[in-house]
Amino acid sequence: MEPTKVVAHKTLRVKSGRFSLGTTLMHVVLIAWALTTIYPLFWIVNNSFKMSRDVMNDSFAFAWSPVLTNYMNAFDRMNIGMSYVNSLIMSFSTVFLVLLFGGLAAYVLSRFQFRGKRTIYSILYATLLIPAFATVVPVYELLIHTKLVNTYLGLILPQTAGNLTFATLIIAGYMATIPKELEEASFIDGCNRWQMFTKVFLPISQPVFASASIFVFLWSYNDLFSALIFVNKENVRPIVALLNEISSQYGTDFGLMATAVSLTVIPVLLVYLFISKYIEKGLTEGAIKG
């Protein structure tokens, strides 16, 4: 065998070995990360099928004889069904408003050239640095004056305002990558600006809209801080606020607590599984400006 071929063969073997070692380490790390993420969820669901005394005695044992008492009590004693409905109404309404106004704002920022555009971008980025806690008092005062405290809009509007900047920026970044030739072709076909947004930009931007929707839904659904302040009555109380009261009302019933947490996670998993195929594509393509 020629010397050059021997060197090339050894180099290929070394690279192949390194690639196999790197791939193995990567899989080990991902498996370890998955276990730390999946096992706590399995532990909660498993304990939800046990009585409280069994959870106290051995919480890590598998529930070989599952019971549904905790789930029945969750709907009878805690009225978790109403909290479910409240959370879904508020979260989906927030997602809808954020995508509507954020999509329109992103379309203008990404496809129009006008004076003050950079200033608007600077203001949007600056608002991301403002913590939500700093706006609680003025927002609460506004809700009191408009009589929206302890109503659906009392939580929907603040959450919409809080998530609107994030959605606008990532959608604008994605729309900026759409070729200008599509816009020109739409003008030739007689589309106005609204038709162009709904028939051209909106379908093409489905991945980034899906990515924004899952993040907005998660932030809205899990927003305990705002829920405790703006909607603290039982008839409009979301499910995260209900969980906060379980420790005081049913502090010794750990099986019921595990059941409530399990029921809380279900909508998040369903929403994620429904649009997960769009998330990676939307985030990666939206980060590239062409």
Automatic annotation (TrEMBL):
UniProt cross-references to Pfam families, sorted A to Z: BPD_transp_1
Gene Ontology BP, a term: transmembrane transport
Residues spanning the membrane: 21-45, 88-109, 121-140, 160-179, 200-221, 254-275
Family annotation (CDD domains): TM_PBP2
Subcellular location: Cell membrane
Membrane topology, record value: Multi-pass membrane protein
Keyword Phosphoprotein in record: no
UniProt cross-references to SUPFAM superfamilies, sorted A to Z: MetI-like (SSF161098)
Keywords, comma-separated and alphabetical: Cell membrane, Membrane, Transmembrane, Transmembrane helix, Transport
One cellular component term from this protein's GO annotations in UniProt: plasma membrane
Family: Belongs to the binding-protein-dependent transport system permease family.
Name of this protein: Raffinose/stachyose/melibiose transport system permease protein
